[in-house]
Automatic annotation (TrEMBL):
It comes from Acinetobacter faecalis. GO terms for molecular function: monoatomic cation transmembrane transporter activity. This is Cation transporter. The lineage of its organism: Bacteria, Pseudomonadati, Pseudomonadota, Gammaproteobacteria, Moraxellales. It comes from the Bacteria. Residues 22-194 form the Cation efflux protein transmembrane domain. It is found in: Membrane. Its main location: membrane.
């Protein structure tokens, strides 16, 4: 069936404020990935290790989002779909890490956990704040907002886990928090995937016509 392209809207111009916000979030997340990777290994903390992978995944997501800002809504939704799959996959990876840590039975070092958790929380609050204005945008914008929001929630949980480990000497608070973070990744990934699929369907014909 032929389609009429006379009413096809012009591709949206990249939002300069959104681009700046993405760069800020990208730099913050890349730096915190290194900090938590080293700190998590030193403290034997599953939640810090999981959070470091989350920071890395978010940095990659922000970089990809920057790359597709000038693309059509269909291709931006396609990238968001891929990011949603990555977010959900991260949740399953963390679950596997929790099982491995439980089998190893090494309790984490609470002071290091707490200190890095506070630093990570500050970093993610800044990221979430600069991205907050774009939380109701398309699926691509929504996905980057959800990343920072989930990270901030996860950091609060890491701090609480550090307190629990310090008070009990048990590794269970650390593992429980890691499982919570896995759940957040699975739920957020599902939300992004659902919205991205809808946007792809709505904009597929428009994208073909515009080309």
């Amino acid at each position: 069936m032929a389609c009429s392209c006379s009413s096809v809207p012009e591709p949206q111009k990249p939002n300069s404020k959104f681009r700046t916000a993405l760069w800020i979030a990208l730099i913050i997340n890349a730096a915190m990935f290194i900090v938590e990777l080293i700190g998590g290994a030193y403290a034997h903390s599953s939640s810090l290790w999981a959070d470091s992978l989350d920071f890395f995944g978010d940095a990659v997501n922000y970089g990809v989002s920057l790359a597709v800002l000038s693309a059509s809504l269909y291709w931006r939704a396609t990238v968001a779909l891929a990011k949603g799959i990555v977010m959900a996959t991260f949740g399953f990876v963390v679950i596997g890490k929790v099982i491995y840590a439980y089998v190893q039975g090494i309790p984490p070092e609470a002071i290091t956990m707490g200190a890095i958790g506070i630093l990570a929380l500050i970093a993610n609050v800044i990221s979430a704040a600069v991205l907050y204005a774009f939380r109701d945008g398309d699926s691509n914008m929504q996905s980057v907002w959800l990343c920072s929001r989930n990270d901030a929630i996860g950091n609060v949980a890491v701090i609480l886990a550090a307190v629990g480990v310090f008070g009990t000497g048990s590794m269970l608070p650390d593992l429980i928090v890691a499982m919570i973070m896995a759940g957040l990744g699975l739920v957020a990934g599902y939300q992004v995937i659902q919205r991205a699929r809808l946007e792809r369907q709505q904009n597929k014909i428009v994208d073909v016509c515009s080309n």
